[in-house]
Each structure stands twice: as C-alpha cells, then as structure tokens.
Write a sequence for this structure.
C-alpha cells in the first residue's frame, strides 16, 4: 500500500499533522527526524553542530534511504527535499504532499531556530533557507496543501481529503 510523505519547512506542522492524519487514516506514522535521532543517539542540533550541514545532510539521506515503510504517513525533516536520493526513494510508492506556509508564518512559528536542529549554514538566515528550499518542495510535491490559517484540525482534515482523492486508501 502507498505511503503519504509530508515535506515542508520546519514549523509547518509535518509531525503534528502527520501523526493525527495517520490516526484518522488508520495508517502507521514515521518521523524521519526522530528516526535519525534514535539511530544516532543524539539530538538533531548536536548532529548539525558536530557534522556541519553537509555531514548532517549525508546522515539524513542515508537514514531516509534505509527506510522501508508501507501504508505509512512519513513526516520528513525540513531539508530532506534537498536530497534527491532520499526523495527518489520516498517517491517510489508514495503521494508527496508539500505543507506550504508563507515565510511570515514560518518565521512566527520558529522561536527556537538555534536549538531546533535545523540544517543551516554559517551566516545563513531563515529567509535564505526558505528561499533555497521552496523550489525543491515544489519539485517533489504531487500536491501542495496551503496550510496558512487552517489550524491543525482543518489541515488534518484537508490532508485526509487529499489522501482519499488520490486513492491511497
């Protein structure tokens, strides 16, 4: 059975919406950030600090490429869409949904940008990251779910509709 893969910026709700949608759809749930932390035995921010952004991206891609899941909602780390190998692996049997938020909403939601484990290069701003990632999210997305102003419940409801419209269940 097909998977549902959520991509988007940190703070867009991939994990929160993903776990609730998985419950509503009677699907399994995997958060690749949590999977990577469990595999490495350390928080994301520590990995970013120790490995740098390039090393972190390599570790993240290896983690995602090793993931074997069916009938699962998968919440990805915000930078996974930049990793073509990881995305090609996820796309094999999945509907990829981009949870889109405008920059201003992402900025308001991310209060802990320095400790959250976001793969940002030295001197890179949140705006830089946003602008860099948007084309990758759109490139890989089968569907763009515009989540701004919807709140968690409405976003979950819309995601469930999208999954059903696309014949996942």
């Amino acid at each position: 059975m097909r998977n549902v893969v959520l991509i988007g910026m940190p703070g867009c709700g991939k994990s929160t919406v993903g776990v609730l949608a998985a419950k509503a759809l009677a699907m399994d749930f995997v958060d690749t950030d949590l999977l990577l932390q469990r595999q490495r035995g350390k928080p994301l921010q520590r990995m970013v600090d120790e490995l740098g952004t390039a090393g972190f991206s390599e570790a993240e891609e290896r983690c995602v490429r090793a993931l074997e899941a069916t009938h699962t909602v998968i919440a990805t780390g915000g930078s996974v869409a930049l990793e073509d190998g990881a995305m090609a692996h996820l796309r094999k049997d999945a509907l990829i949904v981009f949870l889109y938020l405008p920059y201003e909403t992402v900025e308001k939601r991310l209060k802990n940008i320095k400790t959250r484990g976001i793969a940002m290069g030295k001197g890179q701003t949140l705006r830089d990251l946003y602008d860099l990632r948007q084309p990758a999210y759109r490139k890989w997305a089968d569907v763009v779910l515009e989540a701004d102003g919807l709140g968690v419940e409405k976003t979950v409801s819309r995601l469930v509709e999208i999954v059903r419209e696309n014949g996942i269940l």
Summary: The chain has a mean pLDDT of 92. The beta strands are 3-7, 28-31, 72-75, 94-100, 143-146. The chain has seven helices and five strands. The CA atoms of residues 71 and 142 lie 17 Å apart.
